[in-house]
Design brief:
Elements: E1 27-30, E2 36-39, H1 50-57, E3 67-68, E4 73-75, E5 80-85, E6 88-92, E7 95-97, E8 102-122, H2 126-144, E9 150-156, E10 183-192, H3 195-201, E11 217-218, E12 228-239
Antiparallel strand pairs: 1-2, 2-6, 3-4, 4-7, 5-6, 8-10, 8-11, 8-12, 9-10
Length: about 260
C-alpha cells in the first residue's frame, strides 16, 4: 500500500482529503484467516475509505485474476471491502494460487540522451504559433546537421495529456479560433545517441525569440542545453533458482 490508499491520486472528492501534505504509510492489521483491516496513524493526514482503497487496487494491475507477488499469485476479483470505522476498512475474500517459480524483474539499459525545450505562446492563435514554431525549430535542427533519433512534440494546453481522448472546443476535431486557449506551451524533446549532440540541439531555439511565427513567445526550456541520460525498461520474469534469497551485511571498521 502507498499514499494512494490514503487519498493520494484520488479522483473522487480529492479536495476534501484532510491535510494531504502529511500522508503517512497505511497500516495493515492482518488476521490469521488472511483478512486485514487497513488503517492509518491517528491524527495523520489522508483518508482510509472504501473508495480510496479500491483506487489503490486498480493501480498498475494488468490481470486482476493473476497478480504476481513474491509469495503468492493473488486473485483480486473476489476481494470485499467493508468500512468498519473511521479510517478503518476490512479487506477479505482475496484468493490466491501457490507461489510461482519466477520473480518479476525490471531491467534497465542505456537508451541514449535527451534534451528538451519549452516555449509558451499567448493568445491569439496560441496553438497555431506553437505548432509552427516547433516545425521551424525542427527544420533549423535538420539544417544544422544534428542527428536526431526521435522527436517528441507536445502542445500543453491543447492535447498533450489527454490527446485524442479529449474533445477540442469546436467538437468536430478542429481548432475553434474563437475559443482558443489563453496560452499554449510547446514542449519539444529529442533523443540522440550522443550527449554532445543532444546538448547542441537546444542552441537552435534562442534565435527564434525574435523570429518565431507570430508574437507572444516566451521561455526557453532548459538553460545551458542540459541533457539527461535515458534508460529503457525491460520487464521480464526470472527463475527463483537464480535469485539468492539471503541478505549478507558486511561491516568494515575504519580506524
Amino acid at each position: 500500500c502507498s499514499g494512494q490508499s490514503l487519498g493520494g491520486n484520488y479522483s473522487g472528492d480529492w479536495w476534501a482529503i484532510p491535510h494531504p501534505w502529511d500522508l503517512p504509510y497505511p497500516i495493515a492489521e492482518v488476521d490469521a484467516d488472511g483478512s486485514a483491516v487497513i488503517t492509518k496513524p491517528a491524527g495523520s493526514g489522508g483518508r482510509v475509505s472504501f473508495d480510496t482503497l479500491r483506487h489503490q487496487l486498480l493501480y498498475e494491475v494488468a490481470d486482476p485474476t493473476r497478480y504476481y507477488a513474491p509469495d503468492v499469485v493473488a486473485d483480486f476479483t473476489s476481494a470485499r471491502f467493508e468500512q468498519v470505522g473511521p479510517d478503518r476498512v476490512r479487506v477479505s475474500g482475496v484468493r490466491g494460487e501457490p507461489v510461482s517459480d519466477t520473480y518479476k524483474a525490471l531491467l534497465a539499459f542505456h537508451a541514449g540522451w535527451s534534451g528538451e525545450s519549452k516555449v509558451a505562446f499567448g493568445w491569439p492563435d496560441a496553438a497555431g504559433k506553437a505548432l509552427s514554431t516547433a516545425a521551424v525549430f525542427a527544420k533549423r535542427v535538420q539544417m544544422a546537421g544534428h542527428p536526431i533519433d526521435e522527436w517528441c512534440v507536445e502542445m500543453w494546453g491543447v492535447d498533450a495529456l489527454g490527446g485524442p481522448t479529449v474533445p477540442l472546443p469546436s467538437g468536430d476535431g478542429n481548432y475553434d479560433h474563437d475559443r482558443e486557449p489563453a496560452e499554449v506551451v510547446a514542449r519539444m524533446a529529442w533523443r540522440c545517441a550522443d550527449a554532445r549532440a543532444a546538448a547542441a540541439v537546444s542552441r537552435e531555439l534562442p534565435p527564434l525569440a525574435l523570429g518565431a511565427p507570430g508574437a507572444g513567445m516566451t521561455g526557453s526550456g532548459r538553460a545551458g542545453g542540459g541533457v539527461s541520460e535515458l534508460l529503457g525498461i525491460w520487464p521480464t520474469l526470472v527463475s527463483r533458482s537464480q535469485v539468492d534469497s539471503h541478505v549478507r551485511v558486511a561491516i568494515e571498521e575504519v580506524p
